[in-house]
Write a structure and sequence with these properties.
Strand order of the largest sheet: 1-3-2
Number of domains: 2
Order of helices and strands: HEHHEEHHHHHH
CATH class of the largest domain: Mainly Alpha
Number of strands: 3
Largest sheet: 3 strands, antiparallel
Helix content: over 70%
Structural class: mainly alpha
Oligomer: single chain
Strand content: under 5%
Distance between the termini: 35 Å
Number of helices: 9
Radius of gyration: 17 Å
Length: 202
């Protein structure tokens, strides 16, 4: 349940400022409200949800500047992780990354934002999990969940589908060539898409 709720945040199923109904989630998952509340508490402790009076939960309603700042920090950390990953990447992992890129192209053709967002997350996650730094990877993963609803809002409402694709193929080429510094630069540029998007709305 916790993992599924994280994916719903990452793919924009749960939207900025949306109130979370504990009772409705319990019905959907076929469980009591206790495990639902516990999962929501955990997400709130990680900054992915806000908790209010009477144990109510809501997706954060960020200002454009706050959203931009989150993407900036995520980009800086992901860049560092990509540079580290360049020293540990394997041929098998590169094939996985290529698979995620193919899925992003399929989602573009279908204008399927949910498919795109999930493949995009798996692409980024695969790289920062290769950083050989669990603290760094965990920090990025939590930031990714926090930026998820805002990335989803951006691609669904603020730009055309033609603007969904980033630097993924170039990132794979850099990693395959062992060019860790270029991989870092490209990952930063890819993630800073969110910085630039929300900065223009300030």
């Amino acid at each position: 349940m916790y993992t599924d709720l994280r994916i719903k945040l990452i793919t924009g199923v749960l939207k900025p400022a949306e109130a979370i109904s504990i009772r409705k989630l319990a019905e959907n998952y076929g469980v009591s409200t206790i495990p639902v509340r516990e999962a929501l508490r955990q997400l709130a402790s990680e900054g992915a949800l806000n908790s209010a009076a009477r144990k109510a939960f809501r997706v954060p309603d960020l200002t454009a500047k706050e959203a931009s700042n989150l993407f900036f920090v995520r980009g800086v950390l992901e860049g560092a992780a990509a540079e580290k990953a360049g020293q540990h990447i394997t041929a098998k992992t590169l094939l996985q990354l290529e698979k995620f890129v193919k899925t992003t192209y399929k989602s573009l053709e279908a204008h399927d934002a949910t498919m795109f967002l999930l493949a995009n997350y798996e692409f980024h996650r695969t790289i920062y999990q290769c950083s050989d730094n669990s603290v760094l990877a965990l920090s990025i993963d939590r930031l990714y969940v926090q930026t998820g609803p805002w990335l989803a809002h951006g691609i669904e409402n603020l730009v055309n589908a033609d603007n969904w694709l980033g630097e993924h193929e170039l990132i794979i080429e850099a990693l395959r060539a062992g060019d860790a510094k270029t991989a870092r630069k490209l990952i930063e540029e890819d993630t800073f898409w969110g910085v630039d998007l929300y900065r223009t709305l300030n």
